[in-house]
Write a structure and sequence with these properties.
Strand order of the largest sheet: 1-7-6-5-4-2-3
CATH architecture of the largest domain: 3-Layer(aba) Sandwich
Keywords: Lyase, Pyridoxal phosphate
Number of strands: 12
CATH topology of the largest domain: Aspartate Aminotransferase, domain 2
GO molecular function, one term: cysteine-S-conjugate beta-lyase activity
EC number: 4.4.1.8
Pfam families: Cys_Met_Meta_PP
Largest sheet: 7 strands, mixed
Helix content: 40-55%
CATH class of the largest domain: Alpha Beta
Order of helices and strands: HHHEHEHEHEHEEEHHEHEHEEEH
InterPro entries: Cys/Met-Metab_PyrdxlP-dep_enz, Cys_b_lyase_bac, PyrdxlP-dep_Trfase, PyrdxlP-dep_Trfase_major, PyrdxlP-dep_Trfase_small
Amino acid sequence: MTDRDALHQAVSRGWREMGTLLVHLARDLPPDARGTLVNQPPTRGSTVLFPTVADMNRNGTRRYDHELIYGAMGTPIQHELEAAIAAIEGARHTQIVSSGLAACTTPLLAFLGRDGHCLIPDSVYGPTRRFANTVLRRFGVETTYYPPLTDAEGLRAMMRPNTQVVVAESPGSHTFEVQDIRMIADVAHEHGARLMLDNTWGVGIFRPFDHGVDIAVQALTKYPAGHSDSIIGAVSVADEQDWHVLRDTCIQLGQVAGPDDCWLTLRGLRTMGARLERQSRSAIDVALWLADRPEVARVLHPALPSCPGHEIWQRDFSGASALFGVVFRPDYSQEAMVAMIDSLTLFGIGASWGGYESLVLPTTGGVVRTCTPDAPDAPDCGPAFRLHIGLENPEDLIADLSAGLDVLTGAAS
């Protein structure tokens, strides 16, 4: 077996193993005399009618049971999606929310209180940082940013008596550091804090609750929906009391997702394993090709030793996604990289990721750091960009990138 074959197996094993689960989960509707549709239709509605006042009152007390009460508290198709995500994450309960950002912010509102303290990795998703620095600050919550690859001693030194939540994002969505989630969970629990993990990159290939996570969040917009046509998120928990706190907060905030987005996401889940088995292998092919290019200083793919925390990925993940970063040598300018990106024909230029199509996004200049001077995109490195590899032929993508690198070197000369 070649090294490339071994990497193909390493990044796609978890997706292959999930295939049967993804096809059959959350399909428990009993057939009627006329048969059963393969896909449950979307259920649209606001008002729910009950035969009696007693029935309405009885259902009104069951807000923790994924029951139909009122449209803004969830519909049957949302409840099916919640059951599916809970099964994938290994959670007891999942709450579907309106977006991936809502999945990040809602549990912070649920589990942080005034005069509380939150620890967030310096590699965190930019909008989560913005929320902490604005809304949480207005609410009297202080945030400290910690180096994503800090050890237990370093993390303990940053914990405070009022630290209520520790956030992790592994790997970081721009710089791809893979965090030691079990260690972070242990330190957080020693100090009475909860660990919240943004598991969007690791959906299906990292089981958060097996590693001590208390709250796992997902931008379902990405791989579960899979077609770049839905905005939707999920928050999952394993503890029943945490579920009550989360569910009450979502009801109080009016957090809900539309039935069509839920339906599209549930449909996308059925093919996620097949899509990602293919996309993860293609991403490795592209990453290995880029790693051999003289223009490239570093490829930030968790399956490669050049990525910070690679050993943790090997230990904890059953596969990889198709999102990774690339850092050029310092003798290439930002302007030359932009010229290269603009020349690409098969990579769309845009934010988000997780669909069937390939994307490119410059990351230099868009990553905020406050405590990690040696980040992969630090000033002593060249400009950096992020690739999402879709379902195109990887040889075609490599040819497109090869032509783009010719533009890069021409712009630099």
